[in-house]
Fold each of these.
Amino acid sequence: MSRLAVRKTYKLFIGGAFPRSESGRSFVVTDAKGGFVANAARASRKDARDAVVAARKAFPGWSGATAYNRGQILYRVAEMLEGRRAQFAEELGTGKKAALEAVDATVDRLVWYAGWSDKITAVLGTANPVAGPYFNLSSPEPTGVVAIAAPDDPLLGLVSVVAPAVVTGNTCVVIASQRSPLAAITLAEVLATSDLPGGVVNVLTGHQRELAPSLAGHMDVNALDLTGVADAELAVECEQAAAANLKRVLRPAPEDWTADPGTRRMAALLETKTVWHPLGV
Amino acid sequence: MAVFEYAPAPESRDVVDIRPSYGLFVDGEFVDGAGPSFKTVNPATEETLAEVACAAEADVDRAVRAAGKAFGPWSALPGAERAKYLFRIARLIQERSRELAVLETLDNGKPIRESRDVDLPLVAAHFFYYAGWADKLAHAGFGPDPRPVGVAAQVIPWNFPLLMLAWKIAPALACGNTVVLKPAETTPLTALAFADICVQAGLPAGVVNIVTGAGATGAALVAHPEVGKVAFTGSTEVGRQIARTVAGTGKKLTLELGGKAANIVFDDAALDQAVEGIVNGIFFNQGHVCCAGSRLLVQESVEEELLAALKRRLGTLRLGDPLDKNTDIGAINSAEQLARIRSLTEAGEQEGAERWSPACELPANGYWFPPTLFTRVAQSHRIAREEIFGPVLSVLTFRTEAEAVEKANNTPYGLSAGIWTEKGSRILMMADRLRAGVVWANTFNRFDPASPFGGYKESGYGREGGIAGLEAYLDV
């Protein structure tokens, strides 16, 4: 006798917990042929604000953790993801070979970024030879809470925008791809079991049109990554809203997720802090 | 204690030859502007110094197109050749530094001691520093052949007119961009003198263009479609408007905006040294400094002792003729700024803070404000939250390190901060936790072209100075 499968309820990921949307809403996620796959939670603007609160709360601990520790945790995320290779491949629903390649590339990307945690400061920091008797050192520091609109590439694209934000000590609120949001929630399950402190990554599923402007105008968000906003008008609206508190903005641009990411995304979400001290006085 | 009186020691203004009127500097020539010309005055005397042309939209368009035309050949020059132009400019600034310092003091109101010993040396140093980068960009960490952005639109404030020009123009030109710069309406003269230096240096026409005018001129410049990069230093409010204007255009943008820096004094600090640092932090340049240490956070146990020493020191500050070499505090730059300082200090009194100034006679003409200190300031007071941009210090207290960090960071700004303590580990811990782009420990208000400068949060984004300052002008 065949057994009836136990299906998963796809919920949001906020502050390390998996709540439904406070609005009680959901939306239908379909496969490539239009068939029903699941009802995903449709996050509200209130959920987005809650996620920002969680991200802000997590920021001091995460940015204050040692770079080695952050690297270890990101590497742990890669390990957990590798362990769920088959599950992700199935959920991506793109054909087994392509899906497995995408999962492998995602694991490798996480490993790549994990290694950056204790190197980026040495690469971007500078010892400055000022014309006077002063010690003068510039170091990169995380900018704070980052709101991210993830691209439609459901796993590799998602990890390629989240990892560079958090590896340096930022915390984030990410709006998953509206078309393919389920991998983001399964990734959240991976994050929840990887020693990543709750609130470092918060995942919202729902309508980008509704959530992105709300996060863009939020006064406790420090930076906005619009990579996943395909609608040019929406991107402009968000960039304008971001001016309210001078958020750092990553504008949407075509991306090849299989290419070497370089340090650009990490650098865009870092501040430079310069410390002076007199010598010999 | 014996007090020695000073005899006046005025710097001669004969070294400057101010023309009765100035045009715009476009495509290597001085030309008329279509807008209504305006007067620039000496804020210490209210005398009119010169009549200055105002660039209308069509003039701005002409300047941007001149810069666009010059961009091709300028960016194609070998870096070593661009470097030599910049070295020439640096040398010319040194040669004419006395003249430029006097001109700056006349137009801005800052003490000659500061324009001569701080502004001008830093201006020349900035051109020297970035000149050296022009042929070394491949080594700066932005790839093997980083490209310039194009025409840079640069809008600068009135507090350090020539220094802010140097911060904008030197890196832009070193990276291969051409520029259109708008100086502040109240301080256009040194920028126009700089135009003459560009001519003396033989800089190709159109590489540097100077358009004078007020807000409308700046808005037209920032909005021009052929501009590839916008750089602005000024108020956070105008910075927000510019960020909104630039949204969706793809223009690269850097903003250096306001601040409300905490200058934090612990009970183990060298108090005499700290007093000098506090004075330099808020009374340097009449407090017209975005990174000024405008909030003094003092540990409760030394509050009384520190304030007594600080008040004693404020009593020795000399306010008056900016051209006098003994002057510590010059004139407020404009009637408008003076009104703003007055309105905020009145709010300070109304909200319950205690106001104090040393006995200080203000000259009859010109715009003046005495060094002022507020005690019993609460974090909710406007004088603790808003940038006053004047010689006004708000004093708050704290008991623990954690409270100091909390109060220091309790502002939408994040440009600078100061720490005074003799304990090394405390300096490093505080420096780590303060959310500010520049942290001065046991010093304040130090600047150097090799040292990146710029803010966190609503103090803007991007850095000026150092390698970090190149990024703003490269297509990376």
Note: The mean pLDDT of chain B is 97.
Amino acid sequence: MNFELMAEAFPQLIEGIPLTLQLVFLSLAIGFVLAVVIALARLAKDPVLPRLAYGFVYVFRGTPLLVQIFLIYYGLGQFEAVRESILWIVLKEPFWCAIIALALNTGAYTSEIIRGGIQSVPWGQIEAGKACGMSRVLLFRRIVFPVAIRQALPAYGNEIILMVKSTSLASTITILEVTGIAKKLISATWQPIEIFLVAGAIYLTMNFIVTRGIAMSERRLNPHLKDRPLPKRTALDRGVTAASAPAAAVPSKPAE
Amino acid sequence: MEMLSWGDAGWGDELVRAAFTTLLVALAAFGLGLVIGSGAAALRLSGFAPFRWLVEGYTTFIRGIPELLVLYLLFFGGNQAAMAVASVFGHTGYIELDAFTIGAIAIGIVSGAYSTEVIRGAILAVPRGEIEAAKACGMSSWLLFRRIMVPQVARFALPGLGNVWQLTLKDTALISITGLVEIMRQAQIASGSTQQPFTFYVCAAILYLLLTSLSNFGFGRAESWANRGVRRAA
């Protein structure tokens, strides 16, 4: 094991982190908006919209991300019309092609997560909202969305981790993020294990932070599931037996 | 359209052959993943702490890093590793692994990490009472494994393994960087020589869709077959 090389490689690999993070955050942000739209389209009462949305999800989940990236970066340039249109300013840049491909991909996966979340909202709550006279938008904003997001959060955390890993594919279209730099270093030094371990550790750290962040926001969004201290005994409780008291204090997770 | 025709004039037969290569390398990787996964799950549940740490380290690390990195590691370091292993067995001399082997091992290692978790969950899902009952009947541990564990673990693991297979199948696209002529590499070659990348990457996407759809259907059938004796509500 060549520790000197590892110490040398570390600062170089670190330089790729900003680009990796940009790819992750931009594509997640665009993908999330897309996912909400697709999820709503899938649940719409319409003969065409749900099928279109399902088709989109089916294609993007059934093909490798690498094909999607190449199709956008290399494929679209085949058409004269695309090359001469104003879109070419964006589509000739590998960075934006990677963003578009990653966003479409995560949009497809995330829409399924959001759809599951929306469908898990108890019907009674929606009825109650309607009975209060809420408009559809208000109902979605105040009742459906907040409940769905809590339900979908753990699965979305996994999706974020997948995205952190997926950004490595951007290196195949000349983007020098962490994996791209790692590949360059490996082919220059021919010491694959050392570079692999350092680059792997960087990704692992990023994903560890994501996991912690998701766990924290889960606790923040579900404060009622926190371990609460046992309720103080009052005069009224004297009749309660010792065996039955703690049982009420243990918060039970809602069944999935 | 004639570009996709059969024979020397078109790329149709090359693409279909490449699809078979994709299928083969995916099967090899998935099979390797199953072997790794079964072994690792057994070690994980053996109750011996160092084994547990080892397996947890493996699954956490591999699932937390990009597949591409694993592939680069083996692509650049696979031959060294193979020679090191061979020298233990007294073989000295140069070994060069081909692209298929390197790709199958790399994706197999990734697939194995996901399989480990699926199989571990399936083993834990076997009711303890059944294992006790088998022991009470005087079954040897081998018979218990064969008659009680394997049939149920296979059934419980099937949906999860279906997902792992889909992941593995799609990950094989990465093997194109090693030069193995599977769907992705073939599409690259064809678009390079015809200057029609869109056409050929769409073809590649369709071939992948075909493979994933067919295997989805297959796993669905296998699941209903495996669960034919199970009563379900609704």
Note: The helical segments of chain B are 12-44, 49-64, 67-88, 99-125, 128-136, 141-171, 183-194, 197-226.
